[in-house]
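Collaborator request, handled under Task 6.
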Amino acid sequence: MSETKNLLEIEFTNDIFFELMPEWQGAEVDIKILSGGITNKLYRVQSERGDVAVRIYGDKTGLFIDRDYEADAIEKMAVVGISPKLIKYLPEWSVTIVEYITGSYTLKNPDFLKEELQEKIVDPIRRIHNSGKLLPKLFNPLIEVKKMAGILEKLNVSYPEFDIEGTIKTLAKISKIANIPENEYTASHNDLLAENFIMVTEGSEGKYSEPMYIIDWEYAGMAPRYYDIGDMFQEILVPREVEKSIVEHYCEGRDFDKNVYLIDLFKPFPDIYWFLWSMIQKNISKIEFDFYNYGKVKYENARGNIEFVKEEYGVKI
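Structure tokens returned to the collaborator:
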């Protein structure tokens, strides 16, 4: 293989792809750009040899993501039919190549409103949490938020309009109230936005063992299962009655009130995590994106959910 190049800065051509996948050399390939992540570049490559998705890691994403952990999570979750298969992990190129689910549909937020899809959506989530798989990363929500705050602090920027220190103190109180010990953490995805759900469409069911797959395992680790679902709700932003319907499917009627309560407690954590991520990106990313206002919305949502748990449950924080 030739000397590696910065694939973020050059055109992704057939020749570049063949350097990554020399075993496909000589095949007729069709390369398409995929929409999706804010910071990564994504491509679909099709040929008679197969159908794959190529992810080129965004600049400085190593601040937040351990790619060895991500590859490990993909491999383990593919074994239990939750993730597409890992085709190749090339850290020296900042690339991961995975199976592309041919004949599939990427979910959008309104799809979570459809009662007929809710069991199909929660089934892979439930199977992640019940898989018994051990992932190398420990994702303690409070510690991860504090790590993000530490990265932002090192950039020597200030955002006095946000009470970051006070909010983290509040999250510490909520974490103590939730009281989920780390030995009860389960394998979790930790980034369950709608676009990470891939549904096999009619006519393609026979090609795959499951009707729904989950992609993008960058933040996966051992975490409270309630955080995982709380993060999803803060991404899809569905009405309260739809949240409850999804939780009813998830817990299959068992401990419904407990599940709703703990999910509500964890909802502010992912929003503050992504708020801090946004403010960091605003200062280090070369991508043209309104990170400030993206993060501001996340911060305001978190503050709103903190007020909600105080009023709904009489939580003293």
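The cover message to the collaborator said: "Residues 291-313 form the longest helix (23 residues). The longest strand covers residues 41-47. Please let us know whether this matches your experimental observations."
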